[in-house]
Amino acid sequence: MTIQMKIKYKMLTCLALSFAGLNQSCTDNLDVAPVSVITEDSYWKSENDANGALNGLYVLLRRQASENLYLWGEGRSEVMGLGVQGSGGRERYHDNSLDVTTAGPNWLGMYYIVHQANLILKYVPQITFTSEANKNNILAQAYTMRAYTYFTMAKTWGDLPLVTEPTEGYDPATIQKPRTPVAEIFSFVKEDIAKANQLFGESNALAQGRQFWSKPALNALKADVFLWTAKRLGGGETDFNIALAAITEAEKADVSLLPKFEDIFDYTNKGNKEILMAVRFKDIEATDNHYSLMYFPQAFLPSDLDVATKAAIGLPAGQNYWAPSATIRSQFTADDTRKNASFIEVYTAASGTQKFVGSLAVKFNGFVNSGIRLFLDDVILYRYADVLLMKAEAKNALGQDPSAEINKVRERAYGAAYKQHVFVSGSKQANDEAILQERLFELVFEGKRWWDLVRFGKAFEKIPSLKDRVGKDYLLLFPISEATLSLEPQVKQNPGY
Predict the structure, then answer these.
(1) CA 57, 58, 62 angle in degrees (round to 5)?
(2) Residue 151: is its pLDDT beyond 60?
(3) Which of 156, 268, 309, 392 could be cross-linked to 405 through a Cys-Cys bond (beta carbons 3.0 to 4.6 Å apart)?
(4) What are phi and psi of 402, to 5 degrees?
(5) How many CA atoms are closer than 13 Å to the CA of 187, on its beta-carbon side?
(6) Keyword Ligase, does the record have it (predicted)?
C-alpha cells in the first residue's frame, strides 16, 4: 500500500471521527480498513460537515505537535543532552548522527494534514453556508494550515512532492510524484498565505480561540516564512520588508507580553494574550506530549534533595530521556527570570559535597490531577515575544535599530535587574548575534532553536556535534527514511545521505 493509498483510507476515517466528535483517534493507527459509511460524495453536504473536517485538520496537527515538531525544530540543536534515564535513541538528534535507517519521523503525518486541507479546499466551496464569512474563514484556515505544513516540511527536507489536490485515486501516474524544488515549494507557500489573507478579510480578531489559525497568526507565519526566504533563498531586502509589514499587522491584534514569564505556560492559562497560535492539548482529548520525556521521575531524585528544588519540581513524573544540556544551562544568568521558569538542576549533597545529578525542563510541566502529573500544556507555534524578536531581526537586516523590541523582551525577563541588561544597538553582525541569543533564552524548549540556527547560518558554529563538520551543508536537512523511499519510487534521497 502506497503512502497515498494509506492517506486515502485514513482520511475517510478522520472525516467520520471528526463528524462524530471522536477526533482524538484519527491518527492512532495507519493501516485501517476503508470507511464504508462516509465517502467524499456523501460527506461534503453541510456546514457541519465542513466544521467537522476542519476540526479533524487540527487533530492531525496535534498528532505532529505531540513530538515531531520538536524533533524537527529543536532536537538537533545544542539545547538537549542525555537524561538520567539514558536517551531512548534521542542522542541521534543532538549528536547529529541521523541516517537513512534512523532518519527521525518521516513526512507521512504531515501529508495527512496536506490531504485534509486539500479536501476542505476542494469541497467546502460547493457547500451552502448560513454566512459567507464562515465559509471564507474555514477556507482561510485550510490555506494557512497547508502553508504552515509545507513550510515546516521544506525547512526539514528541502525539495518535496507537491500535492495540491486530494488523493482520490490509485493511479501510480497520479499519486506518485517526484520532489519539487524547494524554491517552488516556497512560492506555493506564499501563494497560500496570500489566499488565506484575502479570505480572512480585515478582521484581526482572535475571538475564535488562539488554538485556531487567524489573521494575526497568519501574519506571524508570513513573517517567519519571509525571514527564511530572505536569508536562505536570496529574498534579501524585499522579503525582509514583507516580513516586517506582516509583523506590523500581527501587532494590531489583542496581543501583549504577560507581566510574568512563567504565566505564559501555565496549564490554567491556556490561550492567554501572549499567544497567537498554539496547538491545544487537554485532558481526556489528548495523551501526554513530548515534554513528559524532559521531566524527572521519583526513582532518580536524590534522597537529600534540598527543600527549594523539591518544591520547584513538585510531583516527580515522566521519563528523563533527554535533558537541558550544560551548554545551554551555563548561558543563563542568575538574574534572568526565564532560567528557573525553563529548567531545574538537580544536585545531591552526599558525603558533604554537592554533586550534579541531572536536569529537567519545567517550562511545560503540565498539571497534577488526582496524584498524577499530566503533560498536556499547549505546543506554542507563535507568541508575541517570538514576533517581537522576529521584528528585531527584520529591522536589523534593513539597517534599522532593533533595540526597542529586544528591550521589551529583556525588561520582562530581568525585572528589577533590567538596567544591567539594556540592549544598545551595535553593528548588524553584533545585533544579529544578540537577537539569536535572546531567542535562545526566550524560546528554549519551544521547538525553534534548530531552525533559528539554520536561518541565521550558525548551526556549525553553535552546535558541538557539528563544529568539526563545517562545509557539510547537507546536514542542515534531514535524511529521507528508507521506508519513505521504498514507498515513493520517484522520490530521491537528499544528497550526502
Answers:
(1) 125
(2) yes
(3) 392
(4) -90, 10
(5) 8
(6) no
**β-bridge pairing 80-82 and 275-279:** unpaired
Whether 363 contacts 212, CB under 8 Å:
no
**How many angstroms separate the CA atoms of 245 and 147, rounded?**
19
Q: What was the pLDDT predicted at 41?
A: 67
Q: At what angle do helices 132-157 and 182-200 cross, to 10 degrees?
A: 160
3-state secondary structure of 132: helix
Q: Range with the lowest mean pLDDT among 119-128, 348-357, 467-476, 482-491?
A: 348-357
Handedness of CA 389, 392, 393, 394 (dihedral sign): positive
Show Cβ contacts of residue 372 under 8 Å, excluding neighbours closer than 6 positions: 315, 317
CA-based nearest residue to 478, from 103, 182, 151, 78: 103
C-alpha distances in Å from residue 341, one per residue of 71, 338, 476 = 22, 5, 30
> What is the pLDDT of the chain when averaged over all its residues?
91
Rounded average pLDDT over 203-222: 92
Distance of CA 475 to the CA centre of its chain: 20
Are 113 and 149 in contact, with CB atoms under 8 Å apart? yes
- Residue 33: CB partners within 8 Å, gap ≥ 6? 9
pLDDT digits (tens, 9 = 90+) for 198-207: 999 887 788 7
Percent share of the chain, pLDDT over 90: 84
Distance CA 211, CA 359 (A): 30
Is the Cβ–Cβ distance between 325 and 75 less than 8 Å?
no
So what's the pLDDT on residue 40? 63
Q: Which of 373, 361, 368 is nearest to 447 (CA)?
A: 361
The predicted model gives 459-474 an average pLDDT of: 97
- Residue indicated by cell numbers 547537507: 474
Task: Note the pTM of the prediction, 2 decimals.
Answer: 0.92
Q: With 90 as the cut, is the pLDDT of residue 432 above it?
A: yes
- DSSP line for 310-353: HHHH-S--S--SEEE-HHHHTTS-TT-HHHHHHEEEEEE-GGGS
Is the confidence at residue 110, as pLDDT, over 50? yes
Distance spanning both ends of the chain, measured CA to CA: 26
What the block records as the C-alpha cell of 360 is 529537567
Quote the CA–CA distance of 264 and 342 in Å, as a whole number: 12
* 160-183: burial string, b at 16+ Cβ within 10 Å, e else: bbebeebbbeeeeeebbeebbebe
> Phi/psi at 411 (nearest 5 deg)?
-60, -45
DSSP letter string, 172-218? HHHH--PPBPHHHHHHHHHHHHHHHHHHHTT----TT-TTS--HHHH
**12 pLDDT band (50/70/90 cuts)?**
very low
pLDDT of 7 over the 60 cut: no
pLDDT at 173: 67
Q: At what angle do helices 132-157 and 47-65 cross, to 10 degrees?
A: 20
DSSP tag of 251: T
